[in-house]
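Most newcomers find our protein records easier to grasp once they have seen one. Read left to right, the backbone structure tokens trace the chain's path through space. Nothing more is needed to start thinking about how sequence determines fold. An example says more than a description, so a record of this kind follows:
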Amino acid sequence: MNYKYTILTILLLSLTVVSCKNDFLDQKPDHVISEELVIHDVDKLKRLLVGSYNEVSGSNYLGRILYKRSAVKSPDFRFVQTIYNPREYEQIEYRYEESGNNNGSAAVLWLQCYKVIGNLNLILANIDDAIGDDVLRKQIKAESLALRGMIFFDLARTFAYPWIREKGLSQGIPLKLDPNEVVIERGSLIQTFNQIVKDLQTAENLMQEDDLSSGSSKYMTKIAVRSLLARVYLYQENWQMSMDYAQKVLNVMPEEKLMGLDSYSFSDYTSESIFELSVGNDNSSGSNGLGAQFDYRSGGQGDVLATQSFIDLLQEYEGDPRANLLMKDKEGKQAAFVKYINRSGGAGLSMHNIPVIRLSEIVLIAAESCAHGATGGDEKALYYLNVLIKNRTTDFQKNKATVGGLELLRRIAKERRRELALEGHEIYDLIRTGTLIERRQSDHVNTGLNSNALTIAATSPKTIYPIPANEIVASGMKQTNGY
């Protein structure tokens, strides 16, 4: 892929979104964007970074595609085809019928991710020599590296086979690290994860300690980077490193910050917020955003509903506040799982922040890592799991976890389903753990889903996106094995 035009296009979009300074807009000729206007100035590179955050929060990435894809391909949610906007490309994903030429949202997500990577590479290639404040320069570099690492990780878990399949020897993703290079080699998944870890650890070392003030989690911070490293190592099955990074987070954000029975809500910057994308008037996706996908009220799409199996799971604990997120759906039942609600007074159907990583996930990462053999073993795993359960039921003694071994891992997996629903984990958890994807026919009603597509092996090519065919043709990149 030739990224030069892409970088300049996204640069224009990013800067016009976040800045109207005359020294930029009055340049002649006004239809040509010159990198020279940006790359030598720390403040302008900062505006490009802010624009990159906005691009990540858009509907072509975390603002809809990745989170919605994770939900509808799992056993916990079903896709109800809408009358006015059938979105056949999303139905393709739901039915596991992607191919190189007919790939659902793969092409859009691929392009969006590499556009943002192009932005970040432009920043990273020039920030050291740009004129401006040295403290700001260091922070911009750290945040850019952290975002790039996160995006590479999301591309890897979406377009590459999971670590469990070949222990990292399967194909990775193209690692574009310079704004002027063209990369088509995919290398191995080991190489991909090595780069992800390198980006995140370099960012960690550059960042100042966190102040944890309300709203500080709208950007990448040291605690956010450490949280993402815990997640990355979990996917890589490096249980001790995953636990070590989870513990670093818990040292700063202790369990007391977990949302409780009376405080469980998804307003902006809760006590659990580690990294969440800020959404306002300038970057809301409106009817294309997350809130509109799951809530049909006030003109929303409401085309993704909870399956009966997931509803039953939410109702296992007495007084579970997560069950309160079930609301009336377009079929007249209580199957709309509404985690994202339009901010009061905001315009648009998706005026809400987007959580990327929360304290609950870190607690569950610690539990899973210990259950797999990290320091503390099952005893510590039970401690962390029960810390969360205690905040999610009015009858803790009845619902307290006491099992060990494989049963403990299954219990942790169930808790992840409850706690992290619609936050981009459902299908990815099944894939990374090699768990058979079983979708009950009784759950998937009023969907048009072919019963032959109800059960999928976690390591099947059907569980990952193919590289878009136009990318293969244009660049000569090698398609994923199995497609």
Q: What stands out?
A: Residues 17 and 51 are 7 Å apart (CA to CA). The mean pLDDT is 89. Residues 4-274+355-475 form a domain with the Serine Threonine Protein Phosphatase 5, Tetratricopeptide repeat fold (CATH 1.25.40.390).
